[in-house]
Each structure stands twice: as C-alpha cells, then as structure tokens.
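Note to self: keep these together.
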Amino acid sequence: MSFGPSPAGFGPPPPPAWIPPTDTERALAEARARGDRSAYYDVLARVRLYYVMSREAYDAQPDRVHRVFVRDTRTGARHWELFTDGMLPAPRTDVVYSRNSLDWIADAWDPQCPPTIVVNPGTPCELALPYGPPGTTDWSHVARQAAPSMSMRLRALHVGGVLHGPVAHGLACGALLCVNNGSLWNALAWHGHGYDGERRRLREWWGITTRAEWQYHLRNLLACEASSSVWEFALSLRRTISRDFGGHVDTGYWRQAVATVIRADSEGSTVITKDGVTRTDPRPESETEARIEGVQRLIGRITRYEARMRADGILAENRYVTSVEAWDLGRASKMARWGLGARFATLAEAESAVARAGRTAAHSYRSWPDFSAGYILGRCLHFDEEEFGDWYQDMVAAHRILMSEAGSPWLNIPFR
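Structure:
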C-alpha cells in the first residue's frame, strides 16, 4: 500500500538531527518517510499505545475507561492523542496515562469521540488517523490482523534513558524482568502498564493499594528481607564451609552441617539484650527434627536447580549460587519504578531506591552472571516447584539475551 503523491498529514522526512528514542519511533519515522502506510500501521499494531487519562476519574471509578481528548489551539478541532513508550514525558502527579492496543483503540470508538487520532504529536513520526466506527478505517483492518508482540527482547531508551553510572547499574539489576516483558530496561521515568495498569499490578501481585504499603515492600526488598530467611540460611552456611575449607562443598557434608547447626541452636542459649541477659528455652525435639528435614529438602531443591543451570549455561562448572538476595534486589529495582508508575513514589525516590539496589548487589555478588543465577534461583524457589516451566525457562532465555546482545547493560556496565 502506498501513500500516493501528496498524502495529507505527511511532510518531509525527519531531520537528520532527530534521534528516535526507541526502535519503535525509528520504525514509525522510516515508514512515514517512505510513505508506507501499511508499515506504519503494522508498527502501531504491534506495540502498546498510551493516552492521557483522568486520574481523579479513575481513582473514583477504576472499573471504567477515562479518556481525555484535546482541542487543537489553531483549528479548534478535537482529537485524541496517542503516544508510543519512547515519547512519554517524565511522570507527573497531575498527568497520568493508560495503555492499550491499536485494536482496542479501534473498538473503543463511540459517537462522542473526535474524528481524528494523532500519533506522537509534534514529532517526526507524527501521523493523523481518521477515527470512526470499528472496521471503517484502513488502519483498523491492520489492527485486527496483528497484535502487540509478547516476545521477550532487549529494549532501551536511546534518548532520555541512563546508560552508565550508579542509576544505570541499579536499573540493570531489573533487566531480566524488563527483557522478559519487552519493556525499556533503562527507563527510570516509568509508565509501564500505565497508571491504571501499574496500580492493578501492585494490587493483584503484592496487595499494595497505598503509598505506605509500597514503601513497606520496597524497604523489605532493599534490605533483602522479602524472601524466605531459610533459603539464605542454607546458602550462607554453604558459603561459610566453602570459605573455611576452600572450594567445593560436598552436599552430604552440607546437609550434616545444617543438622548440627540447627540442633545446637535448638538447645537454647544466653542472649544479651538491652534489658539484660536472657536465656532462650530449648525447642522441642520434634520441632527441631522437622526443621532439619525441611532445610535438607531445600538443599536438594537448590542442588537440582544448580545442576540444571549448569547444563543450561547459567552457572559455570563447579560454581554454585552464593545468595538469593538478587531475587529481592532485582524486584526492588522494579518496585521503585512500579511505584513511580502508580504515583506512589516521586522520581527522586525511585532513582534513590534503584541506585541503592545496585550498590547492595555489587557488595553481594561478583559479576552479572553471579547475580543472574541468584535471581533465577530465588524466583524458582518462590514460584516454580521444580517444574522447570515458564518461571525458569523465561529467565534462562532472558539471561542468554543479556549475556550476548551487543547493547546489553550486562556487557556494557561493569558490575563492580
């Protein structure tokens, strides 16, 4: 399909000085410059598009759609503005966005809608689209035939995103999830699923509905206290044995050491507190043995995951996971951004939290592969139940992308 000799709404090719923020805007600008409507529509159909929504109206009625249309100051005509993710401004408390597909936008028409949609207004990839009843426009037919891509890939902001330094390092700690979801790994000014989508994500996955609850979960993640303390107990004991005896730790010896430590701890002890000396009571033998059995089963799970990770190239031969703190720190890097998208956080708070996650990770691990292995093990202990299903396989695929693609932060940002 061609644009024809002088298509309305299209001007000269984008100026050479303009740098597209992401691969999406580059593809749109190139299609626009070629006069290729089909290619332009196809790009739009394969990404999520953002539009301004009323925060006040959503907070009052979150189960409804709240679109905001604008009026052109020059012509007085009303239109609906849509944006790709690279064109969004930094989050503000008074302006929020929702996100949806081009197909949904075609179906969302009603008689009160303006006759025109404008994509990325004021940019070299801007295009005005006629907006009418579903199925009546050429772009809506393309939207029916394509859908936003759900395949994982490495994406970055080339304009407006940090690529080096402490904040970039902290953002890269969340890169496994970003690659898995196809989101921009270095977008600190986060919009994510949109204001409504980020609120829904935090509510459904974390039970977070207020700023105080978001702060609580972020603090726990940054302190590496959100995951099971038993996981870290088992791994830290193996670290101690390896450090004391140099190198490989036999699994049988590790299991025996767990039993010895737990039994010694169960006998009771004298603890010095601010109120003086306190004696803790011994634990019942049945409780102690049950705890030993549980941790030893955990050791079996850990070693089986590690064996699979070695086979899949995540862990080098004779290497093991030193800690699962990466699971908390990687999520902290994302939680900071999710909170910003949901307007529970300010940009400064998100930046500070992301940088702190990166600093803590650099103290706990030696390299990106070490960090990745800790994150993957923590995720699998939390979700996977030794099925080696999507919870595991998705992270293996994301790890391989981050360890191989030229633009990967893990290949361009020193871990320490």
